Amino acid sequence: MTVAISRPPSPDNKPFGNFMSSILRLLWQRLVISVVVLIGVSMLIFVIARIIPGDPARIALGPNATAEQISNLRADLHLDEPIITQYGFFVADLFRGDLGISLYTNRPVTLDIAQFLPATLELVLIAGIFMVMIGLPLGVLSARFQNKWPDHLIRVISLVTVSAPSFVWAVIFMLLFAFYLPLFPIAGRLSDLYEIDRITGFLFIDTLIAGNFAAFGDAVRHIVLPALALALSGIGQAARLTRANMVETYKKPYIEMAQAYGFFPSRIANHYAFKPSLIPSLTIIGLDFAAMFGNAFLVEAVFAWPGLSRYGVAVILRKDLNAIMGTVLIIALAFVVVNIIVDLIIAFLNPRIRYSEKAKP
Amino acid sequence: MIRAFHILKSNPLSLVGMILVLTITLCAVFAPLIAPFPDHNGAVVEFLNANKAPSAQNWMGTDLVGRDIFSRIIYAYQISLVLGVVVLAISTPIGTVVGLIAGYKGGWIETVLMRITDVFLSVPPLVLAIAMMGVLEPTLTNAMLAVTAMWWPWYARLVYNIARSEREEGYVLAAEVIGASSNHITFREILPNCLPAIITKMTLDMGFVIIIASSLSFLGLGVQPPTPDLGSMVAEGARYLPDSWWLSVFPGLAILLAVFGFNLLGDGLREILGVEE
Questions:
Q1: Global pTM?
Q2: A319 touches chain B (CB under 8 A)
């Protein structure tokens, strides 16, 4: 059994210096864990990818390949070496920024990912903004009107939103708000009539660089429905969590005191109850946000969004191992980065954070 | 039991959830008796009746080869429920044992087991399941395998957290003092205290497994046609929006209804069993 020893506060350091150093320590620890996690994920995918039946070289070359061609490609891909050596080659290539050649597009996987990733990133970021900007206020409202009709309404709605996969919402939104009420475009990222140079790959930035505000507006209109479909269950989840944590906060004496002082209920909710309730919800909101990189696959398929999904599904159906590894690794990387950012936000919001708490038994 | 009844009565939503879950389960079990066209769960073709809007004869319309969508949804529920039960029946015990051992034993076992768990938890479950299905053949068994492989770490994490705090409790120390074996303490003393949280999570997870499994088949990586599956029905129908809306909307709503039922029931169970979120 381990016993937590809390570090005694050092008297020489100013409080703020302490805070910054604890943030840096947190960042460092998080980075180390993330590297371990990424290595783990890469090994996991690597093992899965290599134990499958079927010869990747034969699949890549098709049924008409000669035995010599196959054995050449096997040698190129190091397929005849032991699996540990293969993994070694893979990691060495990875450090050179080389994820291998996609057997599907015949291009370097890194190039493919660089081409498709911005569209997915843009979609996920906007969906994340929706999740926070809609979900949190709903949760606050729900807690403020606890057990009154706005609360009941928001609770039922948020439970409905978490009860369907994002592709179902995508289909329903498309039908309602693109076909029946033609408020938004049906599919794609940009109407054909705009020609925008792809500089960053992010249309929101590229259209502004081009100074084409009509195209910018068009890109905004295109992203609303897919981002909303992607964000919807996250919105419900964020609202539920915020409500649950705020209801707990409302039981604290200091809230009662604020109420006794006659502060406005809205001030109590927004100023005093919200922040301490936000911190415990943030970790899960961060996980939900990161999970959108997976769910984006589903929404992109419905709205013909030219992101990683179409590429990912295509390479999966063709058993294109390099490309599968690359896609999964890039999503895992995004997931890990988002988690680090969320941890840092929590640390900034909560100066009390004492990282040694993690070591408690 | 009486308390449970009172909570159910005071919380009509969980009662609704229970009724939904029971109805869907009964429909799935007695599918051949309930489905108006029981033979439509396979590769039946009735081109004369293809792609018809909902009517008195076909309540939810017919699909592109003339099969009754309502009947196919009922059969798809069968597959979703079996998949959910199998996934949870395998992943819950694995995760529970891993979590108990890591939480009670501590030391290097804890470090190794929980680091492995963290690796699984650090990637969205859907992404790893997609990656696994990418290298496996898309069949029902493999879909179960992929989802199960993604699922046990969540139970390991849950049980680990409970076990870690329980091992400091007086009753565990008492059992240690009278010389109980560590097996006895883990499985007879600590495990029963994890059960309410596990049961609640399993109920909520039935819905979540249905979502993940239908997502896999939506991408064409799960159950293959002609076997009816809610996800692949939505995927097929989404191409014929808006004219043939019934092809995708009804299977989509079917997913929503089932998952909503399990979520309501799980929320109610959480209150009845007093599990913290």
A1: 0.85
A2: yes
